[in-house]
Amino acid sequence: MNIIDFIGLLVQDAIWSAAAAVGFGILFNVPRRALLGCAIGGALGHATRTCLMEFGVIIEISTLIGSTVIGFYGLVMARRYEMPVAMFTISAAVTMVPGVFAFRTMMGMLEISSADPETASLALVTAASNGIKTGLILGAIAIGIAAPALIFERPKPVV
């Protein structure tokens, strides 16, 4: 892939991720003044993940790094606009939820329920693999979003 195609891929990815983040922001009743921040967060996080995956990094690690970018971005935006961090991070991170892997897991489980014993073992391995990948990606999203806040948002001591 040449550099022009690569940049085009990232721009396209960022635009669609921003649109999805705004849609989820509206769904979650994010104030209008924060929707642009949600769009930028979604674009940054998902484009980071896409960029890393294009360089051969596995999806779980790419998602962790992309969601960490969203977490740091959310901290900065929350301080700037004096809003909760979740206002910016949740709708931005929803764009990285592994819907395809979750769907494949469920379809594999349905296949197992109707398979004969000879073919059930392959379906079980495939469903389990997709289920584990789904869980790891969801865990990466949660850790990536939470880690910056846990590191930099220390509770104030009670006096």
Walk me through what this model shows.
There is one protein chain. With 159 residues, this protein is an all-alpha fold. It has one domain (3-152). Helix content is 82%, strand content 0%. The protein contains six helices and no strands. α1 packs antiparallel against α2. It is globular. It starts with a helix and ends in a 7-residue tail after the last helix. The model has no long low-confidence stretch (mean pLDDT 93).
- Helix proportion: over 70%
| Shape type | globular
Beta-strand content: under 5%
Average pLDDT for all residues: 93
Order of helices and strands: HHHHHH
Put simply, the count of helices is: 6
Our Rg estimate from Cα atoms comes to: 18 Å
Unreliable parts: none
Largest sheet: none
Would you tell me the structural class of the helices and strands?
Answer: mainly alpha
Termini separation comes to 59 Å
Total domain units? 1
Number of extended strands: 0
Helices and strands in order:
Elements (H helix, E strand, L loop, with lengths): L2 H25 L4 H23 L4 H23 L4 H8 L5 H16 L2 H36 L7
Summary, kept brief:
The chain has one domain. It is built from six helices and no strands.
Name a few traits of the molecule.
159 residues; mainly alpha; globular
